[in-house]
Design a protein that fits this description.
The complex is a heterodimer.
Chain A lengths: L4 E4 L7 H14 L3 E4 L15 E6 L2 E7 L4 H21 L3 H4 L2 H8 E5 L6 H7 L5 H15 L5 H4 L7 H6 L7 H8 L6 E6 L5 H15 L5 E5 L2 H17 L12 E5 L11 H9 L12 H15 L9 E7 L6 H10 E10 L17 E3 L7 H12 L12 H6 L3 E5 L2 E5 L16 E5 L4 H15 L8 E5 L5 H17 L3 E3 H4 L7 E5 L8 E7 L7 H11 L2 E9 L8 H14 L1 E5 L3 H14 L5 H11 L7 H10 L7 H14 L4
Parallel strand pairs in A: 1-2, 4-5, 6-10, 6-11, 7-8, 7-9, 9-10, 14-19, 15-17, 15-18, 16-17, 18-19
Antiparallel strand pairs in A: 2-3, 3-4, 12-13, 13-20
Helix pairs in contact in A: 9-10, 13-14, 15-20, 15-21, 17-18, 23-25
Chain B lengths: L1 E6 L2 H7 L6 H16 L11 E6 L3 E6 L3 E6 L3 E5 L2 E6 L8 H11 L2 H5 L12 H13 L7 E5 L12 E5 L7 E4 L6 H8 L10
Antiparallel strand pairs in B: 1-2, 2-3, 3-4, 4-7, 5-6, 7-8, 8-9
Classes of the chains: A alpha/beta, B alpha+beta.
């Protein structure tokens, strides 16, 4: 199955050939097609006539195709469907913009019998829509058929002038995989959906949540993610989303629906998934300490539940759990969730927690793999991967095998020892000049706050409808000095631009009408039209490079990267040339590493990239050097002071050796 | 005596002049002031608002505006070269740098702490950023705000109950009181008034 084609109708002898032809056309031309027999997403619509299909695709008229030659029955069928689409259009306020079906059916609806279709190509040619207005109308109606509802206020304006408005007003339609995830029923208890960040995972979970919440009116659902700011964001988004999707039921918070982060706090039993589970089963709640990881806490909870309950007295805490950013959770939490959930667990996670994850494709195969990243311009995403993995440098930091590139949504061509990587263009950006510079490199260190102000002034001049919340500023480094820099940037923005600023690491929430400044830990799930990434020191440390990749790809129009000159270890020119190739030719041409080089890359990053915290590494080093762990705080404080949080084991051993000479340890 | 001066931008003054009515607000003001002290503003002499840190036997912050001067305690220590602070730390030698300030402010301004100022709700999360703030807050919560405000208040003036020029001492509705004065006090007079090393003033 590809993500370009979606089928929801019974395949039979009479329609089989047509379905196959459309599927092939869709695959070969990489154009999204849906073949369905009724509007998706609302069980109440059903029709007596079964042997007809509705063909939907952005550039072609909506076509009702009869396979039975039963004129009367077919006419009743398509009239009923159009009437129902009319009422769906009314429900989602589209009617005020597109009018009643009789006003649009002549423009974008085609009714025909399969017997009149000679071949698929000429048929499609005959129903092709030429005018941009008709195509827009067509897309809006398709979104009603597929339940991929757009905010009509956002997309209704006629012809957007600025780039920002063009992208903001683009009509978004689910692709095949997304549609399958939302509407398909499966028999598995755990359903995994995987994709790079920006592939629309959270949005899909919200659609799934709506389906679950409205279909089963008694269900208890917990929506969780590891990080507090993301949980807070989603909690705010749910009522907005439900209103938007015209859900008539009230949200019963903390009765039927919870949306909290994973851990929670002692005082409030609804404050986290683990906390709530503890309260339901009367377990000992363990507060966060550095010495006990979350996996251990979950394992203890499972043991405690198993010892307290048996099959006879067991009760389920929830009917469904939806987990966003599931790659942040240990398997033990998933096991705990499985134990306490009656029906299904939906996991939405990134393809890799980090681009440095080992063997990404051979881990548990997801049920749905989202290849297309809808957030980010493909050019930005390619460049972000290239910088993250050091593809323009030598030696590279990371190399993916062909299947892994494909899983990440790449098209791979090989030409001798060169690998040519490209990505399909996205509908969201089709109104933009294809050569649009979606990345700008700025090498500047002397006065970063002033540079930031200049960039924002420039953005304001280019986009007269820009608002402060369209801009995100992300400081990539892990050193303490970024907080001082952030404060300086804040003062400059507030004084010179008279704009509000929201420092995400201080407020832990998104504040409307303000420019967000964040360190790399507080931007999960956030995206902006414009992102300004700032780094004072480009390193080859894998966790730094991974942040570089994720932060650069948080923009959907343009990312600015402010970095010091001569940052890329002698490969600055290659980085610039690589970016030019991406902008000009939409591809990366990379020398494939030799088998020996690949071997080296793998051993290096495996050695460097262990998911081990500074604390854990320090305890390991102290044990190794036979120093009592009670002194660890002293070493941690000094190493933090010396900005050694990302140091590797060898460096820490030397550091501890040197420091111990001067410390008075009792 | 060491005096550090910062000329405030309008937006900084607006933030700092929110009246202090609780220890919670005092701590927020103290941290925001400390942040301004740590940064060196870009331009001098732009606004009518000034911030002074005076370190003698007393350690106090003064915020000077054309109609009022607010002063509260500065229970921290600094090292400085000229007008620039190179290090700021608490009595237990915890560093108060820009990161620590953000960490502490993030706790003070969080919904859970605002509605129920207790550490019970905090610290159960996997977050090193928060841990720094908790330790600093633990220490700062024990400090005495020593809040005084010199006001020239035309709007609320009401005979001897609320004299045009007066000093407000303390901030809580149950502990505050006014002392009337004859004249608007200037920054240097007030500094002298509060300085324990200079002659003290008599109520006559």
């Amino acid at each position: 199955m590809t993500s370009y084609f979606f089928l929801q109708a019974d395949q039979n002898h009479s329609n089989n050939q047509f379905i196959t032809d459309i599927r092939n056309f869709s695959d070969n031309n990489k154009v999204q097609f849906y073949l369905i027999n009724k509007p998706l997403g609302d069980e109440k619509y059903s029709y007596g006539y079964s042997n007809a299909l509705i063909l939907l695709s952005s550039d072609y008229k909506i076509s009702f195709i009869d396979f039975d030659e039963n004129e009367e029955g077919f006419e009743d069928y398509y009239e009923d469907v159009l009437e129902d689409i009319g009422s769906i259009s009314d429900k989602y306020l589209y009617k005020n913009v597109i009018g009643r079906p009789r006003r649009w059916r002549d423009k974008v609806v085609n009714i025909c019998s399969y017997s009149t279709i000679q071949n698929v190509n000429s048929f499609l040619e005959s129903i092709k829509l030429d005018s941009p207005q008709d195509r827009k109308l067509n897309e809006l109606i398709i979104s009603l058929f597929t339940g991929s509802i757009n905010d009509i206020e956002r997309v209704k304006a006629e012809i957007p002038e600025t780039l920002l408005d063009k992208v903001k007003q683009k009509i978004q339609l689910f692709d095949g995989d997304q549609t399958r995830f939302v509407y398909e029923q499966t028999n598995d208890k755990i359903i995994r959906i995987q994709g790079l960040s920006g592939t629309g995972k959270t949005e899909l979970l919200l659609h799934k949540l709506k389906e679950l919440y409205t279909t089963n009116k008694e269900s208890r659902i917990f929506f969780t993610c590891h990080n507090k700011i993301l949980a807070h964001n989603i909690r705010n988004r749910i009522p907005e989303f439900f209103n938007f999707m015209k859900v008539e039921q009230q949200i019963e918070w903390e009765k039927r629906l919870w949306c909290r982060n994973a851990w929670g706090s002692l005082k409030d039993s609804d404050s986290g998934a683990y906390r709530y589970i503890c309260s339901v089963y009367g377990l000992t709640f363990r507060r966060f300490t550095y010495s006990v990881p979350f996996s251990e806490v979950c394992r203890l909870a499972i043991d405690e539940i198993n010892s307290k309950f048996n099959a006879l007295n067991f009760i389920y805490a929830f009917d469904y759990i939806l987990i966003d950013e599931s790659q942040d959770f240990p398997e033990e939490f998933i096991a705990l969730a499985k134990l306490v959930t009656k029906e299904n667990i939906y996991l939405a996670g990134d393809i890799f927690q980090s681009i440095f994850d080992k063997e990404i494709s051979s881990s548990i195969e997801p049920d749905y793999l989202l290849g297309k990243c809808y957030r980010t311009d493909p050019k930005t995403l390619m460049f972000a991967h290239a910088l993250g993995m050091g593809l323009f440098e030598n030696p590279k930091l990371r190399w993916l095998e062909e299947k892994e590139w494909i899983d990440c949504g790449y098209e791979v061509e090989k030409d001798n020892n060169k690998v040519i990587l490209s990505r399909q263009p996205l509908k969201r950006f089709e109104d933009m000049d294809p050569d649009f510079e979606s990345i700008r490199l700025i090498s500047e260190q002397s006065n970063i706050p002033k540079k930031v102000v200049d960039i924002i002034e420039e953005l304001k001049a280019e986009n007269n409808t820009i608002t402060p919340s369209d801009i995100g500023i992300i400081l990539l480094d892990s050193s303490k000095s970024i907080y001082q820099l952030a404060d300086q940037i804040e003062v400059n923005i507030r004084h010179f631009l008279r704009c509000n600023v929201n420092k995400a690491y201080e407020t832990k929430t998104k504040i409307p009408n303000s420019i967000l400044i964040s360190n790399r830990n507080n931007v999960k799930g956030l995206e902006f039209p414009f992102v300004i990434c700032i780094t004072k020191n480009v390193t080859r440390n894998p966790s730094y490079r991974n942040s570089l990749y994720t932060m650069i790809s948080r923009s959907f129009i343009r990312t600015y990267l402010i970095y010091p000159e001569d940052s890329f270890f002698g490969f600055e020119q290659q980085v610039h040339d690589g970016l030019k190739e991406i902008i000009d030719n939409k591809r990366m041409i990379i020398n494939e590493p030799s088998p020996e080089e690949k071997e080296n890359i793998n051993t290096t990053f495996e050695y460097e990239y262990k998911k081990i915290s500074h604390y854990d590494l320090m305890s390991k080093v102290l044990k190794l050097m036979r120093i009592d762990l009670k002194h660890i705080d002293k070493y941690l404080a000094i190493s933090q002071e010396m900005e050694m949080i990302e140091a590797d084991e060898e460096t820490l051993i030397n550091f501890v050796k040197d420091t111990t000479k001067y410390l008075k340890l009792k | 005596m060491k005096v550090l001066k910062r000329n405030l931008y309008d937006f900084q003054a607006t933030e700092l002049l929110i009246p202090i009515r609780s220890k919670h607000q005092y701590l927020i003001s103290l941290l925001k002031t400390s942040r301004i002290l740590l940064l060196n503003n870009l331009e001098e002499g732009l606004s009518h608002f000034n911030l002074y840190l005076v370190i003698d036997k007393m350690r106090r912050i003064f915020i000077e505006t054309p109609t009022k001067i607010v002063s509260f305690s500065f229970p921290l220590h600094i090292e400085s070269i000229d007008n620039e602070i190179t290090k700021m730390y608490t009595s237990l030698e915890q560093d108060l740098d820009n990161m620590a300030i953000s960490s502490t402010l993030s706790i003070l301004q969080s919904d859970s702490f605002t509605s129920n100022p207790s550490f019970l709700n905090i610290g159960s999360e996997e977050n090193n950023e928060t841990a720094i703030g908790i330790n600093i807050l633990n220490e700062l919560l024990l400090s005495e705000p020593a809040y005084v405000r010199f006001d020239h208040d035309e709007t609320l003036q009401n005979g001897n109950i609320h004299p045009l020029d007066h000093i407000d001492v303390n901030y809580s509705s149950y502990g505050t009181f006014k002392i009337g004065c004859d004249d608007l006090y200037t920054y240097s007079k007030i500094q002298d008034f509060l300085n324990t090393r200079t002659n003290c003033k008599y109520l006559t």
